[in-house]
Write a structure and sequence with these properties.
Blueprint lengths: L6 E7 L3 H14 L5 E8 L5 H8 L4 E5 L5 H9 L6 E5 L3 E3 L3 H11 L3 E9 L16 H8 L2 H4 L20 E2 L7 E5 H6 L12 H8 L6 E12 L10 H18 L6 H22 L1 H25 L6 H4 L6 H17 L11 H20 L7 H25 L13 E6 L2 H12 L6 E8 L1 H7 L3 H10 L5 E4 L3 H8 L3 E5 L5 H10 L6 E5 L5 E3 L4 E3 L15 H32 L14 H14 L3 E3 L1 E2 L19 E4 L1 H4 L8 H12 L3 H13 L7
Helix pairs in contact: 1-2, 9-10, 11-13, 11-15, 13-14, 14-15, 21-22
Length: 700
């Protein structure tokens, strides 16, 4: 006799395998006392999702579609096979608490007239997600949401219909609509309704399904005594025009299916036009940030051109009246047009473009293009020297602007140009910290600082007596010490100005984690999760793998002749003017330098002499500004001009910037190999910039 199944669980995956894996781990903990049947339906992710998940979760039933058939149809494939008393429809980018299933099953069995139930949904920052409880989107409800009246009058039943904002978040109640991210159904009712209407490709199918419950004797309940976390749309690109169009078409389909008989053809045309107008506005507003960045670039470019003219003519404002009624503004128009065109070809307008070199390339081609055009359009050739000056001003201002923009964004781990290290707090046990911190430090592309770890309250009390000796050992191993207990998390985040909190789910319960995240509401910090496998970090919009970057035997970028030429030119461009200022000290140091020793000792006494000698070494090609460790930085080095794998000793470098967190030997070699494989002029500039704000005094 087949074993009775309590819960059938359906998850539709589309290119979010790591989120699915984490969800399955949370389901395993929450369903420990129940018999569950789990389906993962892959909607042609185009990657190794199915094999990846099968290796980690072999007890799950997998359905691999050869096409992306949409959310509703994919769910229906599993709903037809569901054998459980209850069926849970859940999004892949969610996490359930240990008591989620027990709470909802108890509620459903105690309330036989309840056909489906939802729970409290939390955002990744611990705040309440309003879609936890919703009403049917009537024209009035949709209008009040569009005009944001529900936020102005949240307690009004008239204006707060869409999200039932007048209903307290912690009050159990009957509601019309559940969020499609979490729907706990009686399987008989769900199959009786025929599952989702497959005409809805994505969005709207949850509203339609809940609306059809009104035709039965059942109702839908909101049960806030348990909660889940929803990362919201990580399997979709909500700023993409296609998904905005699909969402708004789904709203019209719902209107046409359930309300069209009440209205005339003219009114339906007005509704359809309004939905498409909203589609256009939604797309424009989703792109406002990118548009603002482009606008800032264009303002900077045009101001620089005008400044070039002013500087060239010694800030004589009268020169503008002499340039044939402002015909010089055609230069601004030409430069702006070329910048936009070249920027598009270089991918400057892509989402989250953190590059500094890309806008500089666009600037270069803009000025070069204008200069070339002036050879043919003589009436625009007011002053090529003005263009040259303007280009210098543009480069200076553009670098400053991009650095401000990049550093204004928090919680980044690997953005080039990010000066401030992202500060991290770990939540877990000492064993978690010892395993995780070396993995974080092994990523040469991350600009982070691990402050320490926070223990659960029980662990903190049990280990308090042994902390002193353990912390000594941790410091020797470059492992930060414990900072406090979980109940102190909010205070610790504020005291240490943490940017990120990483929760280790190997030892921390989901309920503890959810409670801790809730305490951080209103605190400017990003919460991320590390699953049991400890091989990646889940954030709100990205997955970061906790493993060393693969270093394969390929041609090293640094060994390419063109890159060696660029690096040598960059070294000389900085060394020549610096040496010109310090040549008297260099000459003096050169006279006193003992044979066979490149730098003078004691280092503190001959600090400026040694700096001058370094510049001399750069000119001769012995050293580079960015390279391996100098002998004065490494007391174990025996050869002052030794090159490690073709990498010259340098004043700074990836290893020098990260010496405090590296273990001896392999980590340093890994960082240097990463640098040589991924060398670019932009990387050298980024390392030098960080060295300015994180100075290394090599001459102590």
């Amino acid at each position: 006799m087949a074993k009775k199944v309590d819960i059938s669980i359906v998850i539709v995956n589309y290119k979010v395998k790591e989120y699915v894996s984490n969800l399955l781990s949370s389901i395993r903990k929450a369903a420990s006392e129940y018999a569950v049947q789990v389906f993962v339906v892959d909607n042609d992710s185009g990657d190794d999702s199915v094999s990846y998940l099968q290796q980690r979760h072999p007890d799950v039933s997998y359905i691999a579609n050869k096409d992306n058939v949409g959310f509703g149809k994919a769910n229906n494939q599993a709903i037809k096979q569901a054998k459980g008393e209850f069926t849970l429809i859940i999004n892949p980018d969610t996490l359930v608490s240990e008591d989620t299933f027990s709470t909802l099953i108890s509620h459903m069995r105690s309330n036989p007239e309840c056909g489906a139930a939802g729970c409290k949904i939390l955002n990744p920052d611990g705040s309440f997600a309003p879609e936890s409880k919703r009403s049917v989107p009537t024209i009035w409800a949709a209008l009040t949401k569009l005009l944001a009246l529900h936020t102005i009058f949240p307690k009004s039943r008239l204006f707060g219909q869409y999200y039932l904002s007048w209903l307290p978040d912690d009050k159990q109640a009957q509601i019309p609509v559940l969020s499609g991210s979490f729907m706990f159904w009686r399987t008989d009712l769900l199959q009786q309704l025929g599952g989702f209407d497959e005409r809805f490709f994505m969005y709207g199918e949850d509203i339609d399904l809940c609306y059809r419950v009104q035709e039965t004797s059942y109702h839908i309940d909101y049960v806030p005594s348990t909660s889940i976390i929803h990362y919201k749309g990580e399997s979709t690109k909500k700023g993409d025009l296609r998904y905005i169009r699909i969402f708004n078409e789904a709203m019209y389909l719902f209107f046409d299916k359930h309300h069209s008989l009440r209205y005339s053809a003219l009114f339906k045309t007005v509704i359809f036009s309004a939905i498409w107008l909203k589609t256009i506005f939604s797309f424009v507003f989703s792109r406002l940030k990118a548009i603002s960045w482009i606008a800032a670039d264009l303002v900077l470019l045009n101001v620089s051109i005008i400044l070039g003219f002013l500087i060239r003519f010694q800030f004589s404002v009268e020169i503008f009246s002499d340039l044939q009624s402002f015909q010089f503004l055609w230069v601004n128009l030409l430069a702006s047009g070329i910048y936009l065109l070249v920027g598009a070809l270089l991918g400057l307008y892509q989402h989250k473009n953190d590059s500094i070199s890309t806008p500089l390339k666009a600037l270069f081609f803009s000025y070069l293009g204008v200069a070339a055009i002036t050879f043919f359009a003589r009436n625009l050739a007011f002053s090529r020297l003005s263009l040259l000056i303007g280009f210098g001003v543009s480069v200076t201002l553009m670098i400053g602007l991009k650095l401000v923009q990049i550093n204004a964004r928090r919680n980044q781990t690997n953005a080039k140009g990010q000066i401030k290290k992202s500060k991290i707090l770990l939540v877990g046990t000492q064993a978690d910290a010892k395993e995780l911190i070396p993995k974080i430090h092994a990523r040469p592309d991350w600009n982070v600082e691990v402050l320490g770890w926070v223990q659960t309250d029980n662990d903190f009390r049990q280990e308090a007596l042994a902390l002193e000796n353990e912390q000594k050992l941790e410091r020797q191993k470059a492992i930060p010490s414990t900072l406090g207990s979980l109940s102190q998390l909010e205070d610790l985040v504020k005291a240490y100005h943490a940017d990120q909190v990483l929760f280790s789910l190997r030892t921390l319960s989901y309920k503890e984690m959810l409670r801790a995240i809730s305490t951080l509401q209103g605190v400017s910090v990003q919460c991320k999760l590390i699953p049991d496998s400890m091989d990646f970090i889940l954030g709100k919009s990205n997955v970061e793998y906790l493993e060393s970057l693969p270093l394969v035997e390929v041609e090293l970028a640094l060994n390419k002749p063109v890159n060696r030429f660029i690096k040598r030119g960059f070294d000389l461009s900085l060394a020549l003017p610096s040496f010109a200022l310090l040549w008297p000290l260099a000459l003096l140091a050169g006279i006193k330098r003992p044979k066979g020793q490149r730098f003078l000792e004691p280092l503190a006494k001959y600090k400026w002499h040694n700096r001058s000698l370094f510049l001399l070494g750069v000119l001769y090609g012995h050293y580079s500004w960015v390279g391996s460790i100098l002998p004065v930085q490494n007391k174990y080095s025996k050869h002052s001009d030794e090159q490690e794998g073709g990498l010259k000793p340098g004043l700074t470098g990836l290893v020098q910037l990260n010496q405090g967190k590296l273990q001896e030997g392999q980590d340093a070699e890994h960082y240097q190999l990463y640098y040589m494989q991924n060398y670019s002029l932009g990387m050298d500039m980024d390392i030098l910039l960080k060295s300015i704000f994180q100075p290394l005094d090599n001459w102590k």
